[in-house]
Amino acid sequence: MTLDYFYGQAGELFSFYRIPKALFQEQRFQDLSTDAKTLYGILLDRMSLSVKNGWLDEQSRVFIIFTIEDVKRALCCTDNKAIKLLRELEKFGLIERKRRGLGKPSLVYVKNFSAESSKSIFQNRDFHDSGGFKNASQDPSKSRCNKTKENDTEMSETDPFYSEEADGMSKRTQLEEYFSQSLEVELLLRLCPDDKDTIYQIVDLLVDTCATNRKLLHIAGDDKPAEVVRSRFMKLNADHIRFVLKRLAENSSPIRNMKQYLLTSLYNAPTTMQLSYQNQTNHDLAMRG
């Protein structure tokens, strides 16, 4: 393919995405990937459309609606790459995504990269390493206790939802937004459309369980401290949910109590998933040998 040259002012006839030079020149952005910088430029461009449409929240902050599918189309990338880039921009504080409930696309706030008051990129970090939820109005920083008992290990993180009304949001509302984001419900619904009802049921079950004021919860035939259960559930991600859905589909025995079945499956998901993958790996290696 042979392309022509630009002559005179012809270059000004086209539209371009504008990526701030600061993302390439400033030290704080040196670890930001080029693809993430490109996506930020695309999101900035979409901001102008939001301004024209009057898309402002109650505090007059401009937001855009830019889904994972939009990222995939804009950059011609996969689901995983789109999710990774959005998380990367969140990590550097360049965007903030706010959930609006199940089935609705998130609001995306494109943050001002030039603000001198930029805070540490880790200030609004996730509640767990695999999640993507961030909300500037909350401060889910973790504080470790000095307890050394083994039973206290999973209870050593401060529960960010103890305040019944934090920043105008009820504990249940915060949990709904948290799980919708950390479990990547939008992605799950696209990947597992036949399991839509079960996915909603799982999210509701996680919210109900983590919002309870009970001290003990009956799971897997045993009463477990609610704090331990809450800690485990808040570390779940989309892979764990897909694993639970897969095990549910493979189960041929009648399930008398679906709620208890799901609670047990979700509670054990991190361990059973790891064991399952390890067994599969060992089996594959044995077959090759």
Describe the secondary-structure layout.
Blueprint: H1 22-25, H2 34-53, H3 68-75, H4 79-91, E1 95-98, E2 107-110, E3 165-166, E4 169-170, H5 171-182, H6 185-191, H7 196-211, E5 216-219, E6 222-225, H8 226-233, H9 238-250, H10 258-288
Antiparallel strand pairs: 1-2, 3-4, 5-6
List keywords for this structure.
289 residues, mainly alpha, Arc Repressor Mutant, subunit A, two-stranded antiparallel sheet, 6 strands, elongated, DUF6017, RepA_N
What is shown here, in short?
With 289 residues, this protein is mainly alpha-helical. It has helices at residues 22-25, 34-53, 68-75, 79-91, 171-182, 185-191, 196-211, 226-233, 238-250, 258-288; strands spanning 95-98, 107-110, 165-166, 169-170, 216-219, 222-225.
